[in-house]
Amino acid sequence: MDTNKMRDTSREQFEARYPVPEGCCWSAEQGRYVLFDLKLCTVAKYERFVESWVCWQLSREDAV
């Protein structure tokens, strides 16, 4: 399985456990979550979500 496919699978599992807050989305072009609407999601909520994503990725790397 290629690295991108593994990353997509991990992201799908992450999003099943931690739903993406309204006002945020995954940007394939940038390879990260982006905040696009401050009326729907605060910066603090976005940052907590991204921190959870970073921790999720690190925990999966340690398991490999």
Task: Give an overview of the whole structure.
The structure is a single chain. This protein is an alpha+beta fold. It is 56% helix and 12% strand. The chain contains two helices and two strands, in the order H-E-E-H. The protein has helices spanning 3-17, 43-63, and strands at 24-27, 32-35. It has a two-stranded antiparallel sheet with strand order 1-2. Strand 1 (24-27) and strand 2 form a beta hairpin. The longest helix is centred in the C-terminal third of the chain and has 21 residues, at 43-63. The mean pLDDT is 90.
Mass-distribution shape: globular
Order of helices and strands: HEEH
Would you identify the regions where 5 or more consecutive residues have pLDDT less than 50?
none
Class based on secondary structure composition and strand pairing: alpha+beta
Strand line-up in the sheet with most strands: 1-2
Nearest-integer average pLDDT: 90
Strand portion: 5-15%
| Largest sheet properties | 2 strands, antiparallel
> N- to C-terminal separation?
14 Å
Helix content bin:
55-70%
- State the total count of DSSP E strands: 2
What Rg is obtained from the alpha carbons, in whole angstroms? 12 Å
> What's the number of helices?
2
